[in-house]
Design brief:
2 domains, Ribosomal Protein L25, Chain P, about 250 residues, about 30% helix, Alpha/beta knot, 5-stranded mixed sheet, 8-stranded parallel sheet, alpha/beta
């Protein structure tokens, strides 16, 4: 007899929805998401689509009532419970459009729990389109298999970040002027952590002094070359995930 095929099929498209999911829940889909499923992925009646809402894990839903511009997805079974990502935050200065989008996308893929934009004096960007960043997080989560999006916080000034920093959380500080070797410091400081990355122009001297004076700060060297802000954020996050996160 032929082998029973895997269910749900691994080729099934994944979609983030706002509706809270559960057995028997019907999810109406329209707009860009419906276009993606109907016109791009060619979903037909009774095909399976994997859904996640950030609260209820991942659910297999069967396509129903497919029309030109909308369809209904009926939840049948939970395929994965809500995941527990490592307790790691990425605190980064806003940088130019495209590059900050890349940081958000890769932070989601790497398993970051929270993204905290931080306003610094040398930042060439002083505001963020959080809706656009959220859309990039959704796309990344759909692609990489996350069952919940990273928490995306409002832009916060550096002095407020340092003033209200929680006890018990290491603040790894990527300091282009020099710090201790990254691997050594990450291995020596386990537990809840965050990474602070500056803007294209780096931190100014007063900011650097304030960060270094903070009791939670751990200055890091990211090697002999000066990295772009997006490269530093992605590389150091990957290093933390390797030594202290869920890449072990």
């Amino acid at each position: 007899m032929p082998a029973t095929p895997a269910w749900p099929p691994q080729s099934a498209p994944r979609l983030h929805v706002e509706t809270q999911l559960g057995e028997g829940v019907a999810v109406s889909v329209d707009g860009n998401a419906a276009h993606y499923l109907i016109s791009v992925m060619r979903v037909k009646a009774d095909d399976i689509v994997l859904l996640f809402d950030g609260r209820s894990g991942e659910w297999a839903a069967r396509a129903r009532d497919i029309r030109k511009r909308d369809l209904v997805l009926m939840c049948e079974a939970q395929t994965r419970t809500i995941e527990q990502v490592p307790d790691f935050w990425l605190c980064c200065a806003p940088i130019r459009k495209g590059r900050i989008d890349l940081i958000a996308e890769k932070a989601c893929e790497l398993g970051v729990a929270r993204i905290q934009p931080v306003l610094t004096r040398r930042a060439v960007v002083d505001k963020l389109n959080l809706d656009r960043l959220h859309a990039h997080l959704v796309e990344a989560a759909e692609q990489c298999g996350r069952t919940a999006l990273p928490e995306l916080r409002e832009l916060l000034k550096l002095d407020a970040l340092l003033r209200d920093w929680p006890d018990g959380r290491h603040l790894f500080f990527a300091d282009e002027t020099g710090g201790m070797p990254l691997a050594q410091e990450l291995a020596a400081h386990r537990g809840p952590a965050a990474l602070l990355i500056g803007p294209e122009g780096g931190f100014d001297p007063a900011e650097r002094e304030a960060i270094r004076a903070h009791p939670a700060a751990v200055p890091l060297s990211l090697g002999p070359r000066i990295l772009r802000a997006e490269t530093a954020a992605i590389a150091a996050t990957a290093a933390w995930m390797t030594l202290n996160g869920d890449w072990q």
